[in-house]
Amino acid sequence: MLRPDGHIGMTWTERTNDNAGAPEAPLWWVFPERDGDPVRIAFGESGHRLIRGMHRALAALTLAGNDVIVEHVLLYEEWKRDLFEALKAVSVCLVGIYCPIEVLEERERRRGDAVVGQSLAHYESVHANLAYDIKIDTSAMEPRAAAEAIAKHVASREFADAALFRKIDCLQIPVPDLEAGLAFYRDKLGHELIWRTETAAGLRMPETDDEIVIQTERPQLEVNLKVASADAAAERMVEAGATLVAQPFDIPIGRCTVVLDPWGNALVLLDSSKGRLVTDVDANVTGVDRP
Length: 291
Known about the structure:
Blueprint: H1 4-9, E1 27-30, E2 40-43, H2 45-63, H3 77-86, E3 95-98, H4 101-111, H5 118-122, E4 134-137, H6 143-155, E5 167-174, H7 178-188, E6 193-196, E7 200-205, E8 208-215, E9 222-226, H8 230-240, E10 243-251, E11 254-260, E12 266-270, E13 276-279, E14 285-289
Parallel strand pairs: 3-4, 5-8, 9-12
Antiparallel strand pairs: 1-2, 5-9, 6-7, 7-8, 10-11, 11-12, 13-14
């Protein structure tokens, strides 16, 4: 369970009006000037910046193949827009958690550590302009029943990734001799050696984690694309109209498959379900660090 707004709490500020409006403060509590007005939370630019960063961290975790559950209080309309922009390449099930305001205020009072009045201040805004996939009224459902209702809803839907290709894994360049290839790409062009085997070597590009891989096994230039699952990607590609050239097969770090798109372009798709390469001090591959 991840809580983007909870990370703001790690930069805790005092529950007073003393720093209200201070631009350098991540957040502050704004207490009412008059009795009866609700307490609200205000965010400074550093707080907004941290939330934007957390939204992109959620996308990164998901794109790495993780199933993620997120608890979030979307206080601002710009947070909602930014969250959906950050997650546009992943599948999302939006669950609205709510209860009547009278129940929420009573829970606030009984907690003992909550600022009484903040729920009223944000009760309407956090749910505004959101089209939920499922709504849960916590005043009418016990926690286990609510969790089971959400799980049943998720299981009833197909959540194909909005984008199949996660990233470019590497550009594979054929060379007749590995040492000659290293002399050119590493020594003359300045690309740092990351790993090597008897037939291939991975070289670093400074502004990306994509690699140049020089290899002696195949004569063609290849672009390798990273996917969450090579087996699932092969099925999805064929369903979309591609031609399967090579059934999914094992590679040291995971699985791989080769397909042709409708125009005859060969695409090498791979996942890293088995882990990442481990090397010694000379960059020789010694094994796989399994997840």
